[in-house]
Amino acid sequence: MREFNEELINFIDASPTPFHAVAWMKKVLECRGFIRLEEDQEWNLEEDKDYYVTRNDSSIIAFTYPPCVEKGYTIVGAHTDSPHLRLKPNPLTTSAGVKRLGVEPYGGVLLNPWFDRDLGLAGRIVYLEGETRKEALINIDHPIAFIPSLAIHLDREANSSRSINAQTDIVPIIATGEVDFETFLLSKIQKDTTSLTLLAHELSFYDLQKGSFVGINGEFITSARLDNLLSCYVGMNALLETSYPMMLACMDHEEVGSDSHVGAGGTFVEETLRRIAGESFTTLMRRSLMVSCDNAHAQHPNFPSKHDSEHAPLLNQGVAVKINSNQRYATSARTQGRFVQCARALHIPIQTFVTRSDVGCGSTIGPITATRLGIETIDVGVPTLGMHSIRELSGICDAYGLYRILMHVGDF
Question: How many CB atoms neighbour CB 350 within 10 A?
Fold first, then answer.
């Protein structure tokens, strides 16, 4: 379990953006013999071989072939994106003698924890080299930016009623002198930038503090982006080790609604499955199971009233099955029964998560995928504290338990 979690932390540390997460997964899959497919080419799939395909380099689908005739695929779904601060297209401004970079919140980001952190910058840039348009991933993994708090002497209500303006308060500072920011970015590709011209970028700030084990006995994992790179890592390892037909679909843009050509609301998963199944697509969907894996809210020890006491998952007490009668989660009694039966056979604890009846419920890619594919689905997740913060926390036992269940649930 320790080794499993150490590699989880390494994966998250190496994946400050969805582009980097997909690049990491591609390398691992190729080392294990998975063959790359291209969406704009014909596919000639061969039995007993494994494949993967990407879209936008921020979403990835990997699968064994062929699917099981009787039970179809077990499809593990997760998402590659996390709430963060995204660099604006024309970011450079000056205020009070310092250069700043304008940002836009991506997803439901918890803003307070972004103050007073050493920030790196990573993502994709598109540029010209001469007359040739190219793309590159960059990762500036040393401190280049900082968002200073306002001193309590100037904001006596900071500890009682502070609110944050996303336009004016969360603006990273980078320098006091002159800055040629475009040249700075291009220099991360090559030192001589005279032949390069920046065309566009998708860049995100991230906390440079690495993931770690926390607690007297080291029983917690704390890191950025646990939601939901943890599930991507668990799903990929289950795919690599399982003995039954499985597909892994790690999708971008979940945190902003999934409605994009690379999100779960798009065509990526459906088109991939149609190319695999051909005329048997409907039959394949009726025989398959979708396990939507996305972190669940653990009961917060300092705010227990925020949870339904009978359905509040605890850290290190097992994977949470997520249930909502209004279909914000796609779990049914049938899919829950199958998942719980597998967990009990493996002696792995299971918990249930239901939000308070007077509190709104979030959602996942589960209902979106179930609607689009007509596939029976269950929503599950590892209990997590501090969700959508710059740093989140989960237990060391739960991710490993989910991994073991995913390896075997197709047998039930």
Answer: 19
Nearest to 115 by CA among 394, 393, 391, 392: 391
User: At residue 262, does pLDDT exceed 90?
Assistant: yes
**Distance in angstroms (rounded) separating the CA atoms of residues 311 and 313:** 6
The SS3 assignment for 3 reads: helix
pTM over 0.85: yes
Q: In the chain, which residues fall in CATH 3.40.630.10?
A: 2-82+224-411
Tokens 């990526």, located at residue: 268
Q: Which distant-in-sequence residues (6+ apart) come within 8 Å of 406 by Cβ?
A: 74, 76, 234, 235, 238, 242, 246, 291, 293
> How many CA atoms does the CB half-sphere of 190 hold within 13 Å?
11
Concatenated DSSP letters of 213-244? EESTT--EEEETTHHHHHHHHHHHHHHHH-SS
User: pLDDT (tens digit, 9 = 90+) per residue, 274-311?
Assistant: 999 999 999 999 999 999 999 999 999 999 999 999 99
Query: Is 400 in contact with 366 (CB distance < 8 Å)?
Result: no
Residue 238 contacts residue 244 (beta carbons within 8 Å): no
Give residue-wise pLDDT tens across range 89-146.
Answer: 999 999 999 999 999 999 999 999 999 999 999 999 999 999 999 999 999 999 999 9
**364 CB burial (10 A radius; 0-12, 13-18, 19+):** buried
CATH number of 2-82+224-411: 3.40.630.10
Q: What angle do CA 72, 18, 374 make, to 5 degrees?
A: 30
The backbone region for 258, taken as left when phi is positive above 0, alpha when psi lies in -120 to 50, beta otherwise, is: left
Q: Which residues belong to CATH 2.30.250.10 in the chain?
A: 84-207
The confidence score (pLDDT) of residue 362 equals: 87
Please check the confidence at residue 162 and state whether its pLDDT lies above 90: no
CATH topology of domain 84-207: Aminopeptidase i, Domain 2 (2.30.250)
Contact 171, 100 (CB under 8 A): yes
The pair of three-digit structure tokens given for residue 29, joined into one six-digit string: 């899959």
Number of residues written out for the chain: 412
Beta-bridge partner residues of 74: 246, 289
